[in-house]
Design a protein that fits this description.
The protein is an alpha/beta fold. The protein has helices at about 20-25, 105-115, 155-175, 195-210, 220-230, 250-265, 280-290, 300, 305-325; strands at about 1-5, 10-15, 15-20, 35, 40, 50, 55-65, 75, 80, 85, 90, 95, 120-125, 145-150, 180-185, 215-220, 235-240, 270-275, 295. Strands 1, 2, 4, 5, 7, 12, 13, 14, 18 and 19 form a 10-stranded mixed β-sheet that branches. Strands 15-16-17 form a 3-stranded parallel β-sheet. Residues about 65-75 have low confidence and may be disordered.
């Protein structure tokens, strides 16, 4: 026996072990995990011939929560156009997360009810399977959904880069089209979960150079949004309010400036509200501002009735999109009668 470090814990394993044999000993499906050896990614084609030496640090990660009715092709005869992000085209403009649900079954049902065709997942080494030996991937059909791996929980550029690469390896093994994109989050501190702008920009440049299509979680700072687009981000995703806060869009003026700046010479450039959405009216408001989509998790998973809220969020995306295109009436200080004043009884 030799000692290695497996996911941060010392462990004795048989001598002359390969990555493939280790996965077999752990009863893990190779297509459900990605593996690092001493911080270097071990691609799936090299599992069988990559030997594990005494003292090696091995990281094994999987996807965790962090089909159903299709989104409407049209509403009352009005076409619902698809959204293009880089090389990806999606029908639903609602992107939903997979975390915080009471059960995997509830998660599955809420994903169906939301009408989303893109779901976000975290890349983690813990909870490879639950107590019953089940994985998130047993409840998330990679042939049905486009999976968007995220770097949630990363607090520096290096962590986010490693996580993005592991996510790509996982999704390539699953044959999922989401393998070439990533939702980039580089956080500044655990209390506010606000993004680190410098590290986010640094990581974006590296990932774009490595062929990733990067969807960037950022603050509502218009200047940083502009810098991220210039760095090659496929989409800029400003927070409506802090992650999980449920406060909705706190600074609509900044969102309007971001939309104006990023779409000035590129009207189709996707700007997606990410974080802070609490209920359906928040989603509709974000869409009425002119955003191209909304990404949320806690708003559904944390609701008293998650399944009903998933339906509500789906309808809100459609309603907000239609309202944005319809054009609201101007706000006025005084009343303006909608019924004619001519011909009233008792009036000459």
């Amino acid at each position: 026996m030799v000692e290695i470090t497996l996911n941060g814990q010392k462990r004795d394993v048989p001598d002359a072990l390969t990555v493939a044999r280790l996965l077999g000993l752990l009863e893990l499906k190779p297509e459900h995990v990605a593996v690092e050896r001493n911080r270097d990614l071990v691609v799936r084609s090299r599992h069988a011939d990559t030997e594990i030496a005494p003292g090696d640090a091995i990281e094994i990660v999987t996807l965790v929560g962090g089909g159903g009715p299709e989104p409407s092709a049209e509403v009352d005869g009005v076409a619902a156009p698809s959204l293009t992000i880089g090389s990806h085209t999606v029908r639903s403009r609602l992107f939903v997360g997979t975390g915080k649900y009471a059960t995997l079954e509830l998660m599955r049902d809420c994903l169906e009810a939301s009408g989303a065709d893109v779901v976000t997942v975290a890349v983690r080494r813990e909870r490879l399977v639950d107590r019953e030996g089940r994985s998130l991937l047993d409840f998330l059909d990679p042939k049905r959904f486009t999976i968007l791996p995220n770097t949630a929980g990363c607090f520096n550029a290096e962590e986010s880069l490693r996580t993005a690469r592991l996510g790509r390896e996982l999704l390539q093994g699953l044959g999922n089209p989401g393998a070439d994109w990533v939702k980039l989050e580089v956080l500044a501190d655990p209390r506010t979960l606000l993004p680190d702008p410098v590290a986010t920009l640094e990581a974006t440049k590296v990932l774009v150079a490595e062929g990733f299509q990067v969807l960037c979680y950022t603050s509502d700072d218009p200047i940083m949004a502009r810098r991220l687009k210039e760095a090659g981000a496929a989409s800029v995703m400003p927070a409506g309010s802090p992650i999980g806060s449920g406060q909705g869009v706190l600074n609509p003026n900044n969102i309007r400036i971001i939309l104006e700046d990023l779409k000035a010479d590129d009207p189709s450039y996707p700007v997606i509200i990410d974080a802070g959405v609490g209920t359906a009216s928040d989603v509709a408001f974000a869409m009425e501002l002119g955003c191209d989509g909304v990404l949320l998790n806690t708003g559904i998973a944390g609701a008293a009735d998650p399944l009903r809220m998933a339906h509500a969020m789906r309808l809100a995306i459609e309603a907000g999109r239609l309202a944005a295109g319809a054009g609201r009436i101007p706000r006025k200080l005084y009343a303006s009668a909608s019924s004619p004043t001519q011909g009233l009884i008792g009036r000459n």
